[in-house]
Design brief:
By secondary structure, this protein is of the alpha/beta class. It has 2 domains: about 240 residues, 3-Layer(aba) Sandwich (Aspartate Aminotransferase, domain 2); about 120 residues, Aspartate Aminotransferase, domain 1 (Alpha-Beta Complex). Helix content is about 40%, strand content about 15%. The protein contains 14 helices and 13 strands. The strands form 3 sheets. The chain has a 7-stranded mixed beta sheet with strand order 1-9-8-5-4-2-3, with helices on both faces. The two termini are about 40 Å apart. The protein binds pyridoxal-5'-phosphate. The site of pyridoxal-5'-phosphate (PLP) has 15 residues, from helix 4 and helix 5.
Length: about 400
Amino acid sequence: MCFFKVKLLSMDDRVEFIDLQAQFRRIEAGVRARTDAVLAHGRFIMGPEIEELEGELARFCGAKHCISCASGTEALIMALTAWGIGPGDAVFVPAFTFFATGEAPALLGATPVIVDIEPAGFSMDPGALAKAVAAVETGDASLYPLPKAARERRLRPRVVIPVDLFGQAADYDDLFPIAAQHSLHMLEDAAQSFGAEYHGRKTCALGCDVAVTSFFPAKPLGCYGDGGALFTEDDATADVLRSIRVHGKGSDKYDNVRIGLNGRMDTLQAAVLLAKLPVFPEELNARQHVAAWYAEQFADIEGVLLPVAQDGQRHVRAQYVIRTSEGKRDALAEYLKTKGIPTNIYYPKPMHMLEAFRGLGYAPEAMPVALAVSRTVLALPFHPYMSESDVARVTGAVREALR
Ligand SMILES: Cc1ncc(COP(=O)(O)O)c(C=O)c1O
C-alpha cells in the first residue's frame, strides 16, 4: 500500500510542499532502531529517551535547561502558568502569528494585547510594543489601540511573547530594553525557528526568561506527532516547569503542590527526535542552499518580495513566504495549483480579526501592517530535500503567472 502511494506521487511529479517522506527514507534505519528500543523497554511515559533528548536539545542551542513537553501550545501555557499569569494581566502578542500565541494567555484568563508587526521580517514591531505598553499602563487607547478589557479597567502588563515568525528571530535587541524597562517577562515563541541564529546565538537561548518551541511534524525539527520543549537559564523556573508538566507534582506525582497539567512528551516522540538530530545540522545547511536557489532564480522576476534574512540572522525558513502586490496573491496561488505546485497562506487573518478574539473589540485597521501582510503573503514549497530543479519548477510557474 505504502509503496503504491509513493509510486503515485512520483508519477504525477508534484513538488511537495514539505517532503517528510524524503527525510524518512534517509533516516529510516535510525528511527526504527530508536523506536524499537522504546517498544522493547516499554517505558512509554518519561522513558530514558526523554532525559537524553533534553540534554541534546539544551546542548544544541546552548541553553542551561530543556524541559520537553507535549506540544508548543502546552509549552506556552506552562510558561505562563509558571509566572501565575491570569485574569487582570496583559500579555503582549504580535498581530501576525499562529493562533496559539494568543490562545495560551486567553485560556488562562489573561488579556492578549495585540501589537502590530514590522513589514520586513513580519515580527513584533518594537516601537509599537513600547506604545502598547504605555497605553496599557495609562489605560489611554489614544496612545495605541487597546483591547476592550484594557479600555474598561487597568490591566497589569506582565509578559511579552515575541514570535520568530517563519524561522527568523524577532528583533530582540530592540525588544529586550522595553521588556526590562517595564519589568515584563520575555517568552520567546520559537515554535517555527528551532535551529535559527541571531547574532551568532541560537534561538531558544537568546536571553529570554523562557523560550518555547514546537516539534509538530512540519517544523524544521519535527517528530511524528505532537511535541514541544521549553528552555530557560533559571534553575528555579526549570523546577517549576517540570512540576507543572506532571500535574504540579512535588516530591512525587501524588504529592501535588501546585495546579499543573499533563504536559509530558511521549517517549516514542523523543526517540524519533533523537533519530532526527544527527541529520538536523545538515538539513539546516540544505535549507540555506534551497533559499539561495530561490533567491537566484527569482532575481529577474518582478512583482514578488522575497523573505530576506535580516542582518545577523540565520533564517531557517520553516516557511518560505513571499509577498505579492495587493490583489495578485490569490490568482498566483490558483495558477500554481494548476501546475501541481502546492502553496499555503500563513496567515489569512491577522490575530485581531479572528472570530475567537472578536471580544477583544479591535477594528480591522487597528493593525495596518499585519492586515496588509495577511492579504499578500504566499508560502511556496520549501524543505531541505528540494533539488535545484524543483525550485526551478516553482519559480518558472511563478514567472509564467506574473507575466
Ligand atoms: C508561532 C507558533 N506558536 C505556537 C505554535 C503551537 O505549537 P504546537 O502546534 O506544537 O502546539 C505554533 C505551531 O504551529 C506556531 O507556529
